[in-house]
Design brief:
- The chain is mainly alpha-helical.
- Among the domains are: 18-94, dopa decarboxylase, N-terminal domain (Up-down Bundle), CATH 1.20.1340; 152-239, Aspartate Aminotransferase, domain 2 (3-Layer(aba) Sandwich).
- It is built from 9 helices and 2 strands.
- It has helices at 18-37, 50-54, 67-77, 100-112, 122-137, 152-167, 172-175, 194-202, 223-239, and strands spanning 186-189, 210-213.
- It has a two-stranded parallel sheet with strand order 1-2.
- The radius of gyration is 26 Å and the shape is extended.
- The structure holds pyridoxal-5'-phosphate.
- Pyridoxal-5'-phosphate binds at residues 151-153, 193, 195.
Length: 240
């Protein structure tokens, strides 16, 4: 470099060759279509040979890896060994399966890339609209708010946190859980998912706050038992 001149190196996440990238992307989509189309013809699950397991113990690659190689690795070492839940013959557990259109939606959401924390953008309006649709389906008032989250654990954690904040009788966001005047508890059926217990541990109320009420032969909460539990607690409070 001559003295007095400077060179700027432009950094970019763009591919070197868009045409090549487009043809690679077509290959990935074609592979994905075949993967879903043929799901019924594959075993629901198969054990991984040792060399496949070993492929997940290689050192961190410090250098960039060619996309073709990464795709080949996925094709050989990942896609043939799924949990199995997208296979129609999977009966082990109730896990759902995605759909091809849902996967396209995920792809397009990643391509669009807006941060939905707010802002003046169409994706935020769409997010809001979906929340409003869900409110309507569940009979919530228009004034209700909502947010889309990644799954059951976080949804329940947020729900239990809101209940805690509203029912604590204090400004808990300012004063913290130590200022709650009397222990809070939540009633749930004995079929409740473990994420509720974890949520109560996380939000500082302790898992003793989860009171499990027996369920009947249809696995529904025994409402009379719930009423008795609540009444007993109210009486205990009054006499203490
Ligand atoms: C009834 C119920 N609630 C909550 C969860 C937790 O959901 P996620 O895995 O999406 O956090 C599950 C998942 O196993 C569940 O079955």
């Amino acid at each position: 470099m001559k003295s007095g001149t400077s060179t700027t190196i432009e950094e970019t996440l763009d591919p070197d060759d868009w045409k090549e990238m487009a043809s690679f992307a077509h290959k990935v989509v074609d592979g994905a279509v075949e993967h879903i189309r043929n799901v019924r013809n594959r075993p629901v699950w198969q054990d991984m040979p040792d060399e496949v397991r070993q492929s997940y113990k290689v050192p961190f690659p410090n250098d960039p890896q060619p996309l073709e190689k990464i795709y080949r690795d996925l094709d050989e070492n990942l896609f043939p060994y799924p949990m199995g839940n997208i296979n129609p013959k999977f009966w082990m557990w109730y896990m759902g399966a995605g759909s091809f259109t849902g996967a396209l939606g995920d792809f397009l959401a990643a391509i669009e890339g807006s941060n939905l924390g707010g802002g003046n953008n169409a994706a935020a309006l769409m997010d809001n609209q979906v929340v409003n649709w869900l409110k309507g389906m569940l009979g919530f008032p228009e004034t209700a708010s909502g947010t889309l989250v990644s799954g059951g654990t976080i949804a329940n954690t947020i729900g239990l946190t809101i209940a805690r904040n509203v029912m604590s009788g204090i400004d808990i966001r300012t004063d913290g859980v130590a200022a709650i005047p009397q222990p809070l508890c939540y009633y749930a059926s004995d079929q409740v998912h473990s994420c509720h217990q974890k949520a109560l541990e996380q939000i500082g109320l302790g898992n003793k706050a989860l009171r499990k009420v027996p369920s009947d032969s249809s696995f529904c909460m025994d409402i009379d038992a719930l009423k008795r539990r609540i009444a007993k607690r109210v009486v205990a409070r009054l006499v203490s």
